[in-house]
Structures
1.
Amino acid sequence: MSDRFAGKVVLIIGAATGIGKAAALAFAREGAKLVLSAYRTPPDVVDEINAAGGVASAVRLDVGDEESVKNAVATVVERHGRLDVAFNNAGSLPVTKPLADFTAEEFEHTLRVDLKGAFLAMKYEIQQMLLNGGGSIINTGSVVSVVADPGMAPYVAAKHGVLGLTRGAAWEYAEQGIRINVLAPGLVETPMTARWLADPDFRALVHSYNAVHRHSQPEEIAGMVLYLASDEASFTTGGVFLVDGGQTAH
Ligand SMILES: NC(=O)c1ccc[n+]([C@@H]2O[C@H](COP(=O)([O-])OP(=O)(O)OC[C@H]3O[C@@H](n4cnc5c(N)ncnc54)[C@H](O)[C@@H]3O)[C@@H](O)[C@H]2O)c1
């Protein structure tokens, strides 16, 4: 356990499983006070962190619903008095098919969770961070924030949009001490991707995409989140931080 985040209040949206859970455990090990958002049920990770002597609590949240997001940020401030770090990590499982086969409802669902959610979260987090005198926001994009994988055009559009929102807002709030960056993972083994990775042909295809010829584990992504949240990253804002085993290097 280190004290890199001692006294820092961290909100993670989408903390129940996968990358969000790995980041929550890593922040807890480094002394952060955590509020972890759950969509359906309180994340088990809250109990795990408290049992180990950390500080974590849950808040219910639907990231596509404005009142819900506003209340979640207000709850963080009621509990801890401030907000130093926000990790906006909610995402929906991309449906995979060619663009012309998508329904408008499927498109809207992806945009609601992955793009509108990031907008709403940033809106209320930034309002609070301006009162605090600064903070760090990390938005989860993807390699598909900068390139495209076939078969998921709405998700690609949403994740490109997350980068656009991040870049725009980074310029607007840098002088007030708020840094805003995009985390851009390649393929990570999480509940979102478990079904795909169970297919040997899909695994082989994905492993041929990158330079290390494997997919990653959530713990390999969490370190970048903590770096971006920390004072060591004081010269970063508006950036896109790829953790992709070299996928976008060629
Ligand atoms: N797994 C990958 O290969 C991969 C690669 C690049 C980017 N990502 C992105 O990483 C993020 C985390 O995904 P993961 O792979 O850890 O999967 P995951 O399914 O474990 O996590 C997704 C999280 O989003 C939350 N969520 C979904 N809809 C929500 C809503 N309406 N309101 C609030 N929370 C909601 C879920 O509860 C869950 O905690 C997502 O944004 C995803 O798009 C994942």
2.
Amino acid sequence: MTLQLHDQTVAITGAANGIGLAIARAFLEAGARVIAIDLNAEALARFQSSDPDRIEVICASVADFSALKAGLADRTIDHLVCAAAVGSGKMGFPFWNLDPGDWSRVLDITLMGTVNTVHACVPALLEDDTARKSVLLLASVAGQIGSQTDPPYSAAKAATINFAQLAAKDFAPYGIRVNAMSPGMVKTELNRAVFESSKEANTTTYEAWAEEKIKRVSPLGRWQEVDEFGAMAVFLASEQGRNITGQTINIDGGQVMHS
Ligand SMILES: NC(=O)c1ccc[n+]([C@@H]2O[C@H](COP(=O)([O-])OP(=O)(O)OC[C@H]3O[C@@H](n4cnc5c(N)ncnc54)[C@H](O)[C@@H]3O)[C@@H](O)[C@H]2O)c1
């Protein structure tokens, strides 16, 4: 099975840390060039220095459509991965623990940041050999189960899944595939922030909270690792994924099971 992506370029948002960074590294391993987009200039520079010939960086917020359009203009893009996201930093249980105003920043970055990025890449995606191109949106199990943990985050991820499906239909006549990928629980900064906003943060450690939670919510009972998302992202972008579009691939230890 060949997963080689030589002579292909992938643009990845949220590429400076966590799952986005692991996906960027997996694409490099498969031979691709990477355009890494993130807000974190320092982490971007560190990543770029690991392979300056094949990594370009764009320091911008995905909430800023003009900056994305300017940064991505006239580029060759074969694959796009949207991983940038934030949570509200507050706990639901119930949703009225948040104010309606707490939703705006989460929706602007986590949902509209993805929409902005895909829009900004449309001209590049529709150019040249479209049949080998793909888009992958990072969603979440939270968007499939009415998760009460962080209501605006759950809603943004549900909308992301729907956007992946409609974009898959719109891009299909060009041969471009669009999928969503849903992590269950991965020990990244984003996940730690969920713990820090919980009431358990006053009485236990992140490790103890994580250990108990994963056993409770996941049939396989183990945390997902960032590399698993890199491997799946490369597979979906490769020729091996040529008939996969409009799908939400869950890497979650069985937390959500499709019928
Ligand atoms: N970690 C988990 O358990 C988990 C679970 C489900 C879904 N996800 C999803 O996976 C994706 C990656 O999450 P992660 O856990 O690696 O998060 P992370 O916090 O480790 O990394 C997110 C990256 O996005 C960047 N970012 C944040 N706001 C940005 C903005 N406005 N513009 C540009 N970049 C911005 C951050 O600087 C960071 O580098 C996200 O879409 C997240 O919702 C993660």
